[in-house]
């Protein structure tokens, strides 16, 4: 049974996929939920108030947080879910493209977090959940830049949690593996593609698409977010789904050489 007084939650990137499923799950659990999308939308999931926000824009983020505080008076839970993907060889992206990726996936998280923290510190309570990935734990050929953003979020989140505990605020990471969303259809292409990477890029894309077909439903990740949001003693990391738990275990305990060979085999690369 849901608790009708869970508090006020903000979920960025809530129009589709994991973000949408998370917003719905939190609303059913008793949170008053605000969700964001880059473009204004008239509709949204039942129980979720949708607002426009570009996490890559300081003014847009400031307006979002001011609007929510004006409507609800507080923010108890922030789920930083908004992000974009990029599939290609690291060499195939210009520095400008890499900066754009980091501006959304890393600095976007920081923008929203910095805007919300003064509210949580005044309340002396709050929970921040940052959406990471198993690619925040492991290397990923032809995902070097995307994986770098998730590795950055891992270090940022765990460090931030240590800074905020004495102020009543906790930070946790949720780490999905392959999830059945439209994420792979919306991957950004490199802006300076090179023929030498065509085969490897195509192979990785095929492996990813096949894995998505049998991956976890977004609701699996949403349930993990709810657990991370409501645990009385939150952990640093929550693996979302069976595959994510397996990858986390293997990364910690399998010898590096064996893990390297397995990763290349799974990616369709010569061992």
UniProtKB/TrEMBL annotation:
Alphabetically ordered keywords of this record: Oxidoreductase
Q: Does the keyword Oxidoreductase apply?
A: yes
What superkingdom heads the lineage? Bacteria
Pfam families annotated for this entry?
Answer: adh_short
- For the keyword Oxidoreductase, the answer is yes
Boundaries of every Ketoreductase domain copy: 7-181
For this chain, one GO molecular function annotation is: oxidoreductase activity
| Record family assignment | Belongs to the short-chain dehydrogenases/reductases (SDR) family.
What name goes with this protein?
Short-chain dehydrogenase/reductase
